[in-house]
Amino acid sequence: MLAIVVIGLLIPQNLKMPVVGAGWDSYNHETFWYPGWGSSGVHRGVDIFAKKGTSVHSSTIGIVLFTSDGKKSGKFVTILGPKWRIHYYAHLDEVKTRPLAFVTQNTEIGTVGNTGNAATTPAHLHYSIVTKIPYPWRIDDAPLGHLKMFYLNPIDYLEENGK
């Protein structure tokens, strides 16, 4: 079991922008952990805006854990990627993958939409990264700051891998 955990931690992540054609100007760089975000309390990801129907690819290699049509998230996909991180893609117009599928950065997993509680907003992809291994040093005094140990700012990774 320990060997499996270690191997998962050693696989390089190398994230890429999940929305085809999106760039640095396709999202607000200040929205991660933005307070007052409806019933969620804070915004735990980034919204990447694009035309409805634009392809969404997995940002990393991984295994699709779950696809569904949630109340708030609308149509969504969760992928287990390197470092035991869960990549969450929400408000999709269409899901184009299935559970237990192996995906790469070239795999289309869905299309940009505005499903769920985003029905009255412009089409976008909500993208979050959740770590199953807590990072307690990330805890701070922000609203719900104790939960920051489980959420990574995807904006940091998007900007790190090319503006």
Separation of termini? 38 Å
CATH names the topology as: Glucose Permease (Domain IIA)
Outline: globular
**Approximate helicity band:** under 10%
Radius of gyration over all CA atoms, rounded: 15 Å
Please identify, by name, the CATH architecture: Distorted Sandwich
CATH class: Mainly Beta
List the helices and strands and how they pair.
Layout: H1 2-10, E1 34-35, E2 42-43, E3 46-49, E4 55-57, E5 62-70, E6 74-81, E7 85-92, E8 94-95, E9 102-103, E10 108-111, E11 124-131, E12 151-152, H2 154-160
Antiparallel strand pairs: 1-2, 3-11, 4-10, 5-6, 5-9, 6-7, 7-11, 8-10, 11-12
Written account of the structure:
The protein has helices at 2-10, 154-160; strands at 34-35, 42-43, 46-49, 55-57, 62-70, 74-81, 85-92, 94-95, 102-103, 108-111, 124-131, 151-152. With 163 residues, it is mainly beta. It has one domain (2-160): Glucose Permease (Domain IIA). The strands form three sheets. Strands 3, 5, 6, 7, 9, 11 and 12 form a seven-stranded antiparallel β-sheet that branches. A three-stranded antiparallel β-sheet has the order 4-10-8, with no helix packed on it. Strand 1 and strand 2 (42-43) form a beta hairpin. The longest helix is centred in the first third of the chain and has 9 residues, at 2-10. The radius of gyration is 15 Å and the shape is globular. The mean pLDDT is 91.
